[in-house]
TrEMBL record:
Family: Belongs to the DAMOX/DASOX family.
Organism: Bactrocera latifrons
Pfam families in UniProt: DAO (PF01266)
Oxidoreductase in keyword set: yes
Protein name, as recorded: D-aspartate oxidase
Length: 292
C-alpha cells in the first residue's frame, strides 16, 4: 500500500513538473515571438486544427488547453475543412519555432554573452573534468545512452517530407501521427514514431505512407514540389531526466552534473522549460554544496 502511494505521489509530482516545463517554454517562445528578433529566431504565431475520427481524447490536451491564447472545440463546418470522416476536432493558436533558424540564432546569442563553443568527443565525464568546471550540464541527447549508460534512453525515429506549398497557412493534425505543418521555408508533412530504431536512411515506404495520409487530408498537396526528405532520431525516455548528480570519477575527482535529456518528440515544446529548471537545480546545488 505504501509503495502504491509513493508511486502515485511520484506520478503527480512528475505531471506537475511537466506542466511547469511546458508553461515556461511557451512563455519563452511567445516572448521571442513578440520581439523584433522573431524573424531571426525563426519564431512566429501559428494556428491550426487537430482532428480525430476515433476518440475525443485525441483532440484534447490538458497541458496546453488553458495555456494557449486559443484552444477550443472545432465547429461542424471546421471539421469539413480537411477530407476525412472527422468526428472530433479542436482549433488552437500557438507558437511555431523553425529550429534551422533558431539554433544559429541561439548560438550567436550565447557567444555574444561570453560563451565559448568547443567541439570535442566525450566518452566519459572524466574527459572534461580536468577543466575544473563548477558544474556540468549534460544535454547530450541520445549520446547520454552511452555517456550515462542509460538503458531507459532509446532512439525514436522520425521521418518527414518537406514540400513547397505556400497556399497552406494552417496546421493540420490527424490520426496516426499525421501532420501538415507550414513553416518559414516549407511545409512539413509527417510523420512516424519508430522506437529503438537507429536507421538514419530515408525509407521510401515511410514516405509513401506519409504522403498518402497527408494528401488524403489536403489533396492540393499532391501538386506541391518535394523539397527534401529528412530523418531524425529523437532521444526518448519514459521520464525526461532533469536532475543533479555528483559523480566520483576514475581520476579521483568529484564532478557536479545536472542532467537534461530525454525529451523525445517534445524537445522544442519543453526544452526552454527544462533548461530553466536545470539552471535552478544547478544554482541550488552550488549554493548548498550538497554531497547528495
Amino acid at each position: 500500500m505504501l509503495l502504491l502511494l509513493c508511486e502515485k505521489i511520484s506520478a503527480i509530482f512528475i505531471m506537475a513538473l511537466c506542466r511547469q516545463w511546458i508553461t515556461d517554454a511557451f512563455h519563452y517562445w511567445d516572448d521571442i515571438r513578440r520581439s523584433k528578433e522573431a524573424p531571426l529566431a525563426g519564431v512566429c504565431q501559428l494556428s491550426g486544427y487537430i482532428y480525430s475520427s476515433t476518440s475525443p481524447k485525441i483532440v484534447r490536451n490538458a497541458f496546453i488547453e488553458n495555456l494557449l491564447p486559443v484552444y477550443r472545440q472545432a465547429t461542424e463546418e471546421e471539421l469539413r475543412l480537411c477530407q476525412g470522416a472527422w468526428k472530433y476536432g479542436s482549433f488552437f493558436t500557438t507558437c511555431l519555432t523553425e529550429c534551422r533558424l533558431f539554433l544559429p540564432y541561439a548560438t550567436k546569442k550565447f557567444i555574444a554573452a561570453g560563451g565559448q563553443v568547443t567541439r570535442q568527443h566525450v566518452s566519459s565525464f572524466s574527459d572534461v573534468s580536468e577543466q575544473n568546471f563548477d558544474v556540468l550540464f549534460n544535454c547530450t541527447g541520445l549520446g547520454a545512452k552511452e555517456l550515462c549508460d542509460d538503458a531507459q534512453l532509446v532512439p525514436m525515429r522520425g521521418q518527414v517530407v518537406k514540400v513547397r506549398a505556400p497556399w497552406v497557412k494552417l496546421a493540420f493534425y490527424g490520426d496516426y501521427d499525421t501532420y501538415i505543418l507550414p513553416g518559414f521555408e516549407a511545409v512539413t508533412l509527417g510523420g512516424c514514431r519508430q522506437y529503438d530504431s537507429f536507421n538514419l536512411n530515408v525509407c521510401k515506404y515511410d514516405s509513401m505512407a506519409i504522403k498518402e495520409r497527408c494528401y488524403g487530408m489536403l489533396p492540393s498537396l499532391k501538386h506541391a514540389e518535394v523539397v527534401r526528405e529528412a530523418v531524425g532520431l529523437r532521444p526518448h525516455r519514459a521520464v525526461v531526466r532533469v536532475e543533479s548528480e555528483i559523480l566520483r570519477l576514475a581520476n579521483g575527482r568529484t564532478q557536479k552534473v545536472v542532467h537534461n535529456y530525454g525529451h523525445g518528440g517534445y524537445g522544442v515544446t519543453t526544452s526552454p522549460g527544462t533548461a530553466k529548471y536545470a539552471v535552478k537545480i544547478a544554482r541550488d546545488l552550488l549554493a548548498s554544496n550538497s554531497k547528495l
